[in-house]
Amino acid sequence: MVWAKSNQTVDLVGSNRVYGLSNSNGTNGVQCYIDKPKNQPENQGLPTPSQLQHVFDVLSNTLPKLFIQPMDYKIYSPDVVFENRIRGTRTVGLYNYVKQVALLRCVGHLKFAYVRFEILKITQHPEDGTIKVRWRISGISGLKVLMQFWRYRLWQWKEMMQKQESWYDGFSTFHVNSRGVVTLHVADKMMPDDEKVVENKSPLAAKLALLLGLLPQQNANNLSDVMENLLIVSTDKEQA
Predict the structure, then answer these.
(1) How much is the CA Rg of the chain, to the nearest whole Å?
(2) CB atoms within 10 A of CB 116
(3) Cα torsion at 105, 109, 112, 114 (round to 10°)?
(4) Phi, psi of 161 (to 5 degrees)
(5) What is the CATH number of domain 49-194?
């Protein structure tokens, strides 16, 4: 730190800032000029538990309503970064983020006669200040509604939706900073749950193994039941 003194000014030169002290127009007044450091990093520390819980609650309440009402953008930073690894794009700024959400809502309603956003799992992680959401966008096209509507009664609408709908799974990570706002949203692809695939295939695999003689002989007494179940499964698939 260096002091430099003249008749009118005294300058303090530091490593990051320069302070100037001078007389104003020959009077006794003193003016102070301060140059603020440029590119000062924003505080990106971890949020408090209450801040993280607030963002968690807002996302839990608003994400399922993404296609039917506006989002709550108060929890996002004006400089929020959105990394869409599903499409391979990256945007910066809240305005661009809002446009991406609006585009998703528009495409969803154009492609599907009925569309919804479903949260499969949502967790908060205080150790790194993130909230992770596994989600699913499901819908049924207008053509399927016209082609399949006559096969179901009105009170079977939910059953028709479950059988005919298409879906897209994804995984989002929201990074929350020390000010309690989301600064980064990373959206990535999510493969279907392996456990669900195993559960769906296990009964059929066991029945085929029994027919091929891979299971013990004592289970062969239920062969008629197995054949009946196989016929039921085949009939259900044909009806679907």
Answers:
(1) 31
(2) 19
(3) 90
(4) -60, -40
(5) 3.10.450.50
Instruction: Tell me how many degrees the CA angle 189-80-39 measures, rounded to the nearest 5.
Output: 130
Residue 52 near residue 41, CB atoms below 8 Å: no
Contact residues for 42 (Cβ-Cβ < 8 A; gap 6+): 177
How many beta carbons lie within 10 A of that of residue 230, not counting itself?
14
Sequential pLDDT tens for the chain (240 residues): 444 444 444 444 444 444 444 454 545 554 544 444 444 334 468 999 999 999 999 999 999 999 999 899 999 999 999 999 998 999 999 999 999 999 999 988 888 877 889 999 999 999 999 999 999 998 877 666 556 555 555 555 556 555 556 678 999 999 999 999 999 999 998 654 543 443 444 455 444 444 444 444 444 444 445 445 544 444 454 455
Question: Domain limits of the chain?
Answer: 2-34, 49-194
Q: Copy the structure tokens of residue 186.
A: 């990373």
Who contacts 179 (Cβ-Cβ below 8 Å, separation ≥6)? 43, 47, 51, 77
**Residue 145 falls in which region: left (phi positive, over 0), alpha (psi -120 to 50) or beta:** alpha
